[in-house]
Write a structure and sequence with these properties.
This protein is α/β, with parallel strands linked by helices. The chain is built from 10 helices and 12 strands. The longest helix has 24 residues. It binds 4'-deoxy-4'-aminopyridoxal-5'-phosphate.
């Protein structure tokens, strides 16, 4: 730390992204990326957009917002694109939390929430998940604090039902409820339709997972027009050109081929079920994941040891050292071939433990 670093940030612990190793080629199952290429339209349109990089991008993202509005069946005033959903989430912490509206989220969830609260000086509480990693709904009803819930949750993949989400939204009429749907396309139910009914619901989605665009950084907020206007105030006060031309074009291209996205999601679900079945036979305990990852532990081998054993065999998964998570690993669901190799390696590792 330099002697110039602001007093405000001295105690900040930044978010740690999943490792992106360069020492060898791994089967990368550690950051929940898609194993599939972006859609052909996305690739072509991004390449075309590169020819106009001397110009600023459209700060109002007209065409992208139109396409998003039509995807979500809402008015254009109800959507906002962001530089990854991380940016949208940070905007939401900035816009909807303060001392009177502290943030409230589970103790086991996306690790960035505490960082966004800390960097913005927002008070927050982390509510313990139940023993089985499910969310205790009553921790979030009638609280009138700004709620952040990842649905499905990370790193467990466990989802709340739409009825449960509605209960939380309805019972906090004077606070915003943010539902982070980064993984919703792999089997959970989206709360987007509820945004027309409740003015305090903000749904956040990403193009990083189901739409194969993690490298482009594109996220979306859907909510009441007044909430979106508030997010725009933050956006225009920080980075009006937050979506670059190539990302914008790739996003528009992706939305031209919804069938491709749906097909990829169906494959991920199939591959998740395949790997889950095989891992169950090997004796793994897993949470019922509706996401593009599996959260698994085995009584014969510790979480860290399994992570290392897979790494030595060229497979990268994500291990968290946090209490209650340390026995587990989060394994991204990749292609069928990757899942076959993963399961073969897991069998080998367990065989050696006999
Ligand atoms: N929310 C959750 C729950 C996530 O796991 C992630 C991915 N790390 C994000 C949001 C952020 O995704 P992105 O910024 O790539 O849209």
């Amino acid at each position: 730390m330099s002697r110039f670093f602001s007093e405000k940030y001295k105690n900040l612990t930044p978010y740690t992204p999943g490792e992106q190793p360069r020492d060898m080629k791994y089967i990368k199952l550690n950051t929940n990326e898609s194993p599939y290429l972006p859609s052909e339209d996305a690739i072509e349109m991004a390449a075309q957009a590169a020819r106009s990089l001397q110009l600023y991008p459209d700060p109002e993202c007209h065409e992208l917002h139109e396409k998003l509005a039509s995807l979500y069946k809402v008015d254009k005033s109800m959507v906002l694109a962001g530089n990854g959903s991380d940016e949208i989430l940070n905007f939401a912490f900035m816009a909807f939390c303060d001392k009177e509206h502290p943030a409230r989220f589970p103790d086991i969830t996306y690790g960035f929430y505490t960082v966004f609260a800390e960097i913005n000086g927002i008070p927050y509480s982390e509510l313990p998940l139940n023993e089985d990693f499910t969310i205790n709904i009553s921790d979030y009803t009638n609280k009138n604090e700004t709620v952040f819930i990842a649905n499905p949750n990370a790193p467990t993949g466990i989802a709340l039902s739409l009825e449960e989400i509605e209960l939380i939204v309805k019972s906090n009429p004077d606070a915003v409820v943010v539902i982070d749907e980064a993984y919703v396309d792999f089997g959970a139910e989206s709360a987007v339709p509820l945004t027309k009914k409740y003015d305090n619901l903000l749904v956040v989605q990403t193009f990083s997972k189901s739409r194969s665009m993690a490298g482009a950084r594109l996220g979306v907020a859907v909510g009441n027009a007044a909430l979106i206007a508030d997010l725009n105030t933050i956006k225009y006060s920080t980075n009006p050109y937050n979506i670059n031309r190539m990302t914008m074009a790739a996003g528009i291209g992706t939305l031209c081929d919804e069938e491709y996205t749906q097909k990829n999601c169906a494959s991920i679900i199939e591959n998740r079920e395949y790997a889950t079945e095989r891992m169950k036979k090997m004796g793994f305990e897993m949470t019922p994941s509706l996401a593009n990852f599996i959260f698994a532990k085995h009584k014969k081998i510790g979480g860290e040891a399994l992570y290392q054993a897979l790494r030595e065999r060229g497979i990268l998964v994500r291990h968290f050292s946090k209490k209650r998570l340390e026995d587990y690993n989060r394994i991204t669901v990749g292609s069928r071939e990757q899942m076959e190799i993963l399961c073969d390696r897991l069998e080998e590792i367990l065989e050696e433990k006999k």
